UniProtKB/TrEMBL annotation:
Keywords: Aminotransferase, Cobalt, Hydrolase, Metal-binding, Transferase, Zinc. The keyword Ribosomal protein does not apply. Residues 204-315 form the Peptidase M20 dimerisation domain. This is Diaminopimelate aminotransferase. InterPro entries: ArgE/DapE, Bact_exopeptidase_dim_dom, Peptidase_M20, Peptidase_M20_dimer, Peptidase_M20A. It comes from the Archaea. Gene3D superfamilies: 3.30.70.360, Zn peptidases.
Amino acid sequence: MTIELISQEVEKLRDEMVNTLMELIKIPAISPDSGGEGEYDKAMKLLDIINDWPFDKIERYDAPDERAKNGIRPNIIAYYYGEKGEESPRLWILTHLDIVPPGDLSKWTVTKPFEPVVRDGKIYGRGSEDNTQSLVASLYAVRALMNLGIRPKRTIILAFVSDEETGSKYGLGWLMKEHPELFRKDDLVLVPDGGNEDGTFIEIAEKSILWMKISVKGKQVHASMPDKGLNAHRVALDYALRLDKLLHEKYNARDEVFDPPESTFEPTMGGNPSDAPNIAPGEHELVFDCRVLPQYKLDDILNDAKELAKQVEEEHKKGELPKIEIEVLQRMDAPAPTPKDSEIVKLLQEAIKKLRGKDAKVGGIGGGTFAAYFRKLGIPAVVWATLDELAHQPNEYAKIENIVEDAKVMAALALL
């Protein structure tokens, strides 16, 4: 009966949820790494919204970053105590304040990225689904409990953190390093930042992530006289093709827990300073995005890339050139998966069954989420939400129905 009552209360908050989400979309929260000012304005707006809500405690932790507005990257943690007060078991729900840049504005055909509109039950705007949808759902799951005067079985800890999109150096990673006292081994953790269209997929495992930037140095020359220089573009093309083939053939295991079930190695960026058709460039850069099954070691992949670089250098050698350097842009070694029979998995499956009448399956993904940070600490964490998976795309939207229904599940998790 309590879950039904809370579900009814969440329904009453539908319009308020829509308004809150739209207000937050209007505020760009783009990392300085992507040319933005950071999350300060959005964090202040969020604090304004919840300032008079009866949270038991709201804390703010500002990671210093001189590139960001006011020199900080804010992280907000709000507590709503359970029935046993501070002694209650704890449930974290973590969402992120930052968003990715809008990309090609000409591709936004429904509305401009930061001018949200509602159309056909969807709220359009950059960051609507990733991750403001779940941020708002978590807020109003707690608001429904507050309105009804219900203290749940578990203390709910809502965390709204910075810098998820560019590595969490100023967000969750910083919090765990600088404030380890915030986290407990017996905490339950939900990261609503991934899922599927009907909310029946629970992520319990992630692949390792490795972003490699390969820089090739040759000697620029007029394209009509290639022998007088060394075309870095040609060397880079040769290296990229051979690296792609090597990694796919050597690290070819499959694990059906994951989707896709194999490791992926994708060349994603590339370019050189040549600005004319008749210039053979002396420099070239390319990037590989590697998502690797946990059974493989990232050090082995890096060593293979470096060994191949030596081979390619030798084969194209002209004097002291070429030089091939490999830089790690991002690395996340996959921790052990959350056990399928862990408490958080069972509780989430139970909540989904009670509210939606569906059996949720567990599996792994190639993307990286906050859950990996908790798993490294030995704290079981799951990733779940109901999403159409429009993250990072033009015309990104959040379904209003998904916000409302996910809020019900989040509230139920704290009660079961």
